[in-house]
Amino acid sequence: MVRCHSRRWFACQRQTKMRHGLFITLEGIDGTGKSTQLRLLVQYLKKRGLPVRVTREPGGTRLGERIRKILLDSKNTHLSPLAELALMYAARAQHLEEVIRPALAKGQIVVSDRYNDASLAYQGHGRKLGVATVRAFDRIVSGRTQPDLTILLDLAPRLSLGRAVGRQSRRNSNQGRFELQGLNFHRRVRRGYLAIARKDPRRVKVVPAEGPVAEVHARILNLIDGFLAQRLTGYAPDSTWRKTE
After folding, report:
1. Around Cβ 200, how many Cβ atoms within 10 Å?
2. Can the peptide bond before residue 58 be classed as cis, meaning omega within 30 degrees of 0?
3. Is the pTM value of this prediction over 0.85?
4. Which domain holds residue 171?
5. CATH number, domain at 142?
6. How far is CA 52 from CA 6, 49, 65, 232, in A?
7. pLDDT of residue 14
8. Fewest CB within a 10 Å sphere: which of 114, 146, 157, 172?
9. Residue 27 domain flag
């Protein structure tokens, strides 16, 4: 068996004709520091010489980004929960077609800021549409394209919303539709996420999001290194981050 060490992993993947890329998602309610942790994770993976395709939802494509603006615009107060879900999956269908599936077929590691767990948590639980309704959309649109690993950043909604408001103040921008939904909404979303993690603990790893950024990053890298060591032949975790982060 050819051993694919991380620095030359992509070339080795092509040489040995390995079947597929890897799909990693980061999830969590607003204000958990998800975007920051995704950026740090991508930097780490690229430093290891791994082929990474970073993306986000809703969005990730030109059409998806236009839908994202509709979904996040706080002026769209009359958007129904079902219409919201349908728009999410319209953006996701385009995202899968243009970005995710082609990247996986090339053997890349796709790292996405949110994916279908967000629909279960936000629309299924937060909007009270129910898991069955979201699953019906997901079977048609996502199909067998499911994450290999999901990092769920968990934080109490009262703390996360405080962070989100502070972030918007620093950027001198208005709050989005979801941030304006109130504490009870975000509590339902968090319960939804934790229910997903309990149902699928092998895929969904809950990471406490309180504490300094570097500490949360270290927790994530422990999980990522273990995951990649199982999935990539010859992958050796880089111990230097434990000294430098």
Report:
1. 13
2. yes
3. yes
4. 6-235
5. 3.40.50.300
6. 12, 9, 20, 14
7. 42
8. 172
9. yes
